[in-house]
Q: What sequence folds into this?
């Protein structure tokens, strides 16, 4: 055992000093700038193609509208007001559910990581819930709580709770045993172990969970609205679909994509700030 | 200030569900005088790490007793500093913060402690690296920072578990002399576990040889080079004689034992 351990350590430690730091870093930023340029170029290409390919192939606007037809929806006052009002509802549901789900997921994750008895008791239920498509609960929530915000927020909470719970718990449980030994040998109190070792160790995993949770929050809100609601982008999507207003449907998809990118980038920014050592 | 270590008839048996119990160490008697430096060598899996962990209070004994000073070891103690195979620095703290962490945990971080750590960092050649993060340092520098963290606590006993195993030969030799110097100055009772026979002879006032499965002590050799040692020691004919003597214990391990061990590794 100690032989294999030593060899992996060896690999890690000998590779780091041989890496020429200065040039590597310069190459890194150059690579990133290059990557940004490629990404920008690719986005522009796709947008241009979106505008002209449907026209060239004479595809019906009802099937696949060109970009300009979608953008026109944002300049139309009445549609814009509709989009704005309903987007507010969906974003509200998603963010409130996200906040509650993160709080609950992280708290329960801490509890389950600390007390193995509770972990063993609760684990079968976690597995059962994990393998179930949680959006299937939406109709039940509508029966229980009606057509307001509550059932949608609950669906979001369900979808956010589990990735946060599992990633928090696993992050804490996979703390480097050598570091745990170090804290033990230093006679650290349980509170000190949590604050100075377990929490920081779990942060990368928690952020990985958060990235999933952010995406899931909008899946939850939209699905909840599909099942039964009087407001929200999910409702608006169905109304536009029933009116065969495909450009407006695309407009909603654009909004959802933009909000998604915005949230995802904020999470990444936070990760880089709080998990600066990775 | 420094304490002696006394191990009496120590035995550690690991029981795992669905597997036969494994006796890691058996009938180990060991005395280390206060301020002494003892090296322990043995094949992998001979329980030397288990013995060290038991002395450090990280591993319970199945039977027997261990005392550090007048106190029986029943758990980790602040007066004992442990240094592990890996540097185990926390990546979210700077080198200085890492070295000061023990004091922070013990609520005894004062100007004196800071000065001592500062001086140790300086002596370890890390004077200008205090504000760097571990990943910005090479493996050897990280391990040196980890020595500083251990010595900064001003311990009475220093337990070193193959601290230099992951280093390249050049860095390793340098670190050997650094460690020896720090020990000679601090006078702390030190136990070093190592795979390297020359390292054991070079640093120890005594070399303990352990055999595997179950781990027990099969030889205890005085190393008569005194407290001040330099690289010249390695050119001394006595040095070759002593390393050869230690090595003779392992040459007896026949091929079957080695094959058995390899099989164990694969199964692990």
A:
């Amino acid at each position: 055992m100690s032989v294999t351990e030593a060899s992996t350590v060896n690999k890690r430690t000998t590779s780091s000093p041989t890496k020429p730091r200065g040039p590597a870093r310069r190459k890194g930023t150059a690579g990133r700038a290059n990557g940004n340029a490629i990404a920008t170029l690719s986005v522009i290409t796709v947008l241009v193609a979106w505008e002209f390919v449907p026209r060239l192939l004479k595809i019906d606007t009802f099937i696949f509208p060109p970009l300009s037809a979608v953008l026109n929806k944002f300049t139309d006052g009445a549609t814009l007001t509709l989009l704005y009002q309903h987007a507010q509802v969906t974003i509200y549901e998603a963010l409130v559910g996200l906040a509650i789900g993160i709080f609950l997921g992280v708290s329960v994750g801490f509890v389950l990581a600390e007390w193995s008895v509770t972990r063993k008791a609760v684990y079968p239920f976690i597995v059962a819930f994990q393998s179930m498509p949680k959006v299937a609960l939406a109709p039940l929530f509508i029966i229980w709580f009606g057509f307001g915000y509550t059932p949608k927020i609950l669906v979001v909470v369900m979808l956010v709770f589990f990735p946060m719970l599992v990633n928090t718990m696993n992050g804490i449980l996979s703390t480097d045993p050598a570091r745990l030994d170090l804290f033990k040998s230093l006679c650290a109190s349980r509170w000190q172990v949590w604050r100075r070792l377990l929490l920081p160790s779990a942060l990368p995993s928690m952020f990985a969970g958060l990235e999933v949770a952010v995406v899931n929050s909008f899946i939850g809100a939209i699905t909840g609205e599909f099942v039964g609601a009087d407001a929200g982008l999910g409702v608006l999507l169905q109304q536009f679909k029933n009116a065969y207003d495909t450009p407006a449907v695309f407009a909603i998809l654009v909004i959802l994509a933009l909000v998604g990118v915005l949230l995802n980038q904020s999470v990444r920014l936070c990760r880089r700030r709080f998990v600066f050592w990775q | 200030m420094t304490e002696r270590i006394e191990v009496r008839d120590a035995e550690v048996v690991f029981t795992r569900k669905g597997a036969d119990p494994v006796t890691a160490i058996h009938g180990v008697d060991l005395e280390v005088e206060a301020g002494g430096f003892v090296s322990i060598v043995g094949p992998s899996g001979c329980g030397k790490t288990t013995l060290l962990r038991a002395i450090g209070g990280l591993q319970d004994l199945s039977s027997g007793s261990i005392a550090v000073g007048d106190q029986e070891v029943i758990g980790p103690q602040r007066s004992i500093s442990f240094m592990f195979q890996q540097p185990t620095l926390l990546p979210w703290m700077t080198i200085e913060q890492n070295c000061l962490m023990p004091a922070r945990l013990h609520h005894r971080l004062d100007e004196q402690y800071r000065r001592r750590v500062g001086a140790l960092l300086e002596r370890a050649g890390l004077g200008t690296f205090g504000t760097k993060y571990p990943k910005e340092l090479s493996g050897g520098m990280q391990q040196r920072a980890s020595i500083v963290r251990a010595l900064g606590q001003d311990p009475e006993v220093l337990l070193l578990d193959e601290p230099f195993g992951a280093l390249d030969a050049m860095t390793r030799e340098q670190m050997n002399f650094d460690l020896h110097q720090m020990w000679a100055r601090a006078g702390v009772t030190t136990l070093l576990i190592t795979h390297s026979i020359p390292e054991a002879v070079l640093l120890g006032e005594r070399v303990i040889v352990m055999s595997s499965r179950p781990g027990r002590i099969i030889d205890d050799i005085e190393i008569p080079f005194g407290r001040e040692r330099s690289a010249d020691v390695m050119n001394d004919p006595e040095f070759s004689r002593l390393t050869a003597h230690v090595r003779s214990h392992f040459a007896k391990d026949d091929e079957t034992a080695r094959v058995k061990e390899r099989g164990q590794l694969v199964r692990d």
Summary: The longest helix of chain A spans residues 77-114. Chain A touches chain B through 31 residues (CB under 8 Å). The two ends of chain A are 27 Å apart (CA to CA).
